[in-house]
UniProtKB/TrEMBL annotation:
Superkingdom: Eukaryota
UniProt keyword list: Metal-binding, Oxidoreductase, Zinc
A GO molecular function held by the record: oxidoreductase activity, acting on the CH-OH group of donors, NAD or NADP as acceptor
Protease in keyword set: no
Protein's recorded name: Putative cinnamyl alcohol dehydrogenase
Gene3D superfamilies noted in UniProt: Medium-chain alcohol dehydrogenases, catalytic domain, NAD(P)-binding Rossmann-like Domain
Length: 79
């Protein structure tokens, strides 16, 4: 909401309740975004790596030698 919301902290604590939020949305919004991307050919620039390359990838991150996000190819790494 754009306006402040008043909550009883006592009720939250005693009822063991949690208030949380997300700037990225939930499962429904994520699925809608993925569907939209697939429908419109939106892709991401990534570097697909095997799982045994993870340590090297981390070294590259520390050296700022990364152009794209690393994505671990788990399916092919476990064969």
């Amino acid at each position: 909401p754009e306006k402040p919301v008043e909550l009883s902290t006592y009720s939250l604590i005693m009822g063991r309740k949690i208030v949380s939020g997300s700037a990225t949305g939930g499962l429904k919004e994520t699925q809608e975004m993925l569907d939209f991307a697939a429908e419109h050919g939106v892709t991401a620039d990534i570097e697909l790596i095997p799982i045994d390359y993870v340590n090297t990838a981390m070294d590259r991150v520390l050296k700022s030698d990364v152009r794209y996000r690393f994505v671990i190819d788990v399916a092919n790494s476990l064969k």
